[in-house]
Amino acid sequence: MTGTTTAHEGILRRQSARESAARTCAPALPIVPVRARGMTIEGADGRRYLDCLSGAGALALGHNHPVVLEAIRKVIDSGAPLHVSDLATPVRDAFITELFRTLPPGLADRARVRFCGPAGTDAVATALQLVRAATGRAGVLAFTGTHHALTTGSPDAARSASSGAQITLLPYPQDYRCPFGIGGERGAELAARWTESVLDSPASGVPLPAGMIVEPVQGDGGVLPAPDAWLRRIRRLTADRSVPLIADETLTGVGRTGAFWAVEHSGVTPDAMVLSAAIGGSLPLTVVVHRDDLDNSASGTHTGTFPGNQLAMAAGTATLGHVRENGLAEHAATLGARMLDRLRTLADELACVGEVRGRGLMIGVELVDPEGGDDEGHGITGPGPTVTPDGTRGCRPRPAAPELAVAVQRECLRRGLIVDLGGPCASVVRLFPPLTTTDGQAGAVLDRLADALQAAARAPFAHRRAEQPRHPPRERHHPAGRTERTG
C-alpha cells in the first residue's frame, strides 16, 4: 500500500507543478483514477469511489460499459480509418441512423445533422452561425445562468464582436431564487412576459434576433429545470416571430432527465438541438441537429478539425442504441424521482439545505447559510420562502453557502463519493450518476451524501460572520435582461 500511495502522491505533485491552475475538477478531487467500471472508480491509492460526476455528464452508461468497449474494438480491429474529416463512412452512417431513431418526431421528419467538434462550445458556435446565416440577423437571445459560454472569451465571441452581434440575457424562471422574488407559475409568467417585451417592444433596444438558445435544464446554472408551460410559451413566442429556437441538450440529452431528450418533457420541438457529452459514449463528439430549411453551405465553416472521429461515432451509436433499447431514460425518471424524494426528506431535517431540485438523474442540492444574515454577494437574503398576504408564494431564500458546499464535497470524497459543484456561487452539490445506476448504488450514494451533509453542517457559520461587519439585507438579483457586446 505504501508504494501505491507514494505513486499516487507523486502523480498529483507532478500534475500540480506542470499543469495550468485552470484545472476544473482536479484541485477539489485529489484522486488518481487507474481503473473504472460502471459507477465505480479505483484510485492509484487503492481506494474505491462511487462516481456521480460521470465525466461532466458524458458517461451515460458509466465507465467502460461492455457495449461501448466492444464497439470501439470492432472499429480498431477492422482496420477502418480513425479520422476522415467529414467523408462518408459506414460508422458515420450507422451513428446518424441511430441518432435519427431517437430524435423528437417533429424534428426527425425533416432534420439535418452537422458535425463539429470536439467540444460543446464548438457546437454552440456552429448553431449560432447556422441561424445567423439562415435569418440574415445577428443578435442572440439567451438566459441568465446559461451554460453556453456565450460571453467574452468563448470561441464564438470573436465572431460576434466582428459582426457587431449582441447577446441579450433574459430572466430564467426558477422557484428558489426567482429573479422576480415570486417563484412558481407567477414567476414563470413574468419571465415569459419579459421575453415577449424584449422581442416586441422598440423600447427594449433589441432588434429581432437570429435565434434564441435555451437549456431545458440548466446545468452550470445550478440544475434548474425549465417549467414545461414556460418552455411551451417560449416556443410559441419564437415560432410566431420566425426566431429559430435552439435547445442546448449538451448535459440533458441521451436519457439523463428521464426522457431521451429533455425538450420532450414539455412537448416542444426546437428548430435546432446542440448535442454533446453523452452522445459520444465517453469520447469527444458534438453535433447540431437542425431543420432542413435552416441548412446552407455558407454556415459550414466552423466545423473544426475533428468532425470525423470514427471511434466516438461507434461508441455513440452503441450508447444511443443501448439507452433506447433498454429503456434507460424511463429508469432514470423512476430512480431519479426516488432519489429526489429522499433528498427532500433530508432537506426537511437540515437547515443548511435550501432546495433540492432536478429531473431524472440530474439532481442539485443547494446549500445555504442556515442562520441567514448578510448575503456577502452570494444571493438574496431573508428567512426563506414566504407567502404574501394575497396567498402568492414569495421567494426570499437564505444566502448561498459556497464554503459549506466545498466542505460537503470534501466530506463526500472522504466517504468514497465523487460529486460536483455548480450554480452561480458554486453552492449547489450536483449529482449526475450514470443511467445504469442500480437501486443499491443509489442508496449508497444517498447514504454517503447524507452523512457528508450532516458532518459538514456541524461546522458553524458564526466564526466567519464574527470577522466581518454586518450590513442591511439587500437583493442582488435583477429581473432585467441585459445586453452585452461580446469581445
From TrEMBL:
<feature type="region of interest" description="Disordered">
    <location>
        <begin position="372"/>
        <end position="396"/>
    </location>
</feature>
<protein>
    <recommendedName>
        <fullName>Diaminobutyrate--2-oxoglutarate transaminase</fullName>
        <ecNumber>2.6.1.76</ecNumber>
    </recommendedName>
</protein>
<comment type="similarity">
    <text>Belongs to the class-III pyridoxal-phosphate-dependent aminotransferase family.</text>
</comment>
<feature type="region of interest" description="Disordered">
    <location>
        <begin position="458"/>
        <end position="487"/>
    </location>
</feature>
<keyword id="KW-0808">Transferase</keyword>
<dbReference type="InterPro" id="IPR004637">
    <property type="entry name" value="Dat"/>
</dbReference>
<feature type="compositionally biased region" description="Low complexity">
    <location>
        <begin position="383"/>
        <end position="394"/>
    </location>
</feature>
<dbReference type="Pfam" id="PF00202">
    <property type="entry name" value="Aminotran_3"/>
</dbReference>
<keyword id="KW-0663">Pyridoxal phosphate</keyword>
<dbReference type="GO" id="GO:0008483">
    <property type="term" value="F:transaminase activity"/>
</dbReference>
<keyword id="KW-0032">Aminotransferase</keyword>
<dbReference type="InterPro" id="IPR015424">
    <property type="entry name" value="PyrdxlP-dep_Trfase"/>
</dbReference>
<dbReference type="InterPro" id="IPR005814">
    <property type="entry name" value="Aminotrans_3"/>
</dbReference>
<dbReference type="InterPro" id="IPR015422">
    <property type="entry name" value="PyrdxlP-dep_Trfase_small"/>
</dbReference>
<comment type="pathway">
    <text>Amine and polyamine biosynthesis; ectoine biosynthesis; L-ectoine from L-aspartate 4-semialdehyde: step 1/3.</text>
</comment>
<dbReference type="InterPro" id="IPR015421">
    <property type="entry name" value="PyrdxlP-dep_Trfase_major"/>
</dbReference>
